[in-house]
């Protein structure tokens, strides 16, 4: 019988690439990970790892086993959902991840509704960049997450994560009110304010400028859109800001709509869609988003059907 915990380590080795990275992700020593993978290889009865110097690669059999592991882990999530549905009332810790611009706008009403309707839930919010959310969901550090990508920088499908679409926002070019820029191409010689390298916002800014035929001249790095807009208002450069990040722009900032969109999803581990806690979170977040759009009448709009589930793309 194959040990599920060891299968999870093999899956993470395929994802992370090194035993050291797997050890760090699980708070193990590299030696302990190696021992567990060796035990899994004995259970499998076929070679799973190939060692070349200090590096290790998966054999074709191991790669196939990783695919089965994703199915096994999803089945375990579904089994947990079935058991949870048989209990009376919802209780326990719920770890919710959200990107910064969603926290003050979409989360509060959802948290109030969840606390009112399910007082047994212990709700905990973590602010996280979208690039870190798949790992946090797979590792169990999050149970549900508000996760986004952009049409110009789509997220690759993750076999361990399912999601339901929530919101589609327009992205704006934010410029000082007195400057004449009205297109991305016109900012070729402007200073740019972009996110920290490695964040999705940084990637999007770079790609938008590359698509217009130039490399952004970065002057400032800032991840909070309030700070970004304050820098734009101070004449420090131009920036990209999605609709949720531009709800109260300074008077000295002009927002130019672009043909670029940010797409938000509610994400969770594959197989967990029918878990009553996950379903309650999805309903609360959908309701809070609908209420926000009704109040603001902005260009953002909800997407997807409330009960449609799909692997995120």
From TrEMBL:
Gene3D superfamilies hit by this protein: Periplasmic binding protein-like II, Winged helix-like DNA-binding domain superfamily/Winged helix DNA-binding domain
UniProtKB keywords: DNA-binding, Transcription, Transcription regulation
InterPro entries: LysR_HTH_N (IPR000847), LysR_subst-bd (IPR005119), WH-like_DNA-bd_sf (IPR036388), WH_DNA-bd_sf (IPR036390)
Source organism, top-level taxon: Bacteria
GO cellular component, one term: protein-DNA complex
Family annotation (SUPFAM superfamilies): Periplasmic binding protein-like II, Winged helix' DNA-binding domain
HTH lysR-type domain ranges (all copies): 2-59
Pfam families: HTH_1, LysR_substrate
Keyword DNA-binding: yes
A GO molecular-function annotation: DNA-binding transcription factor activity
CDD domains documented for this protein: PBP2_LTTR_like_6
Family the UniProt entry places it in: Belongs to the LysR transcriptional regulatory family.
PANTHER family, per database record: LYSR SUBSTRATE-BINDING (PTHR30346:SF29), TRANSCRIPTIONAL DUAL REGULATOR HCAR-RELATED (PTHR30346)
Protein name as it appears in the record: DNA-binding transcriptional LysR family regulator
Lineage of the organism: Bacteria, Bacillati, Actinomycetota, Actinomycetes, Pseudonocardiales
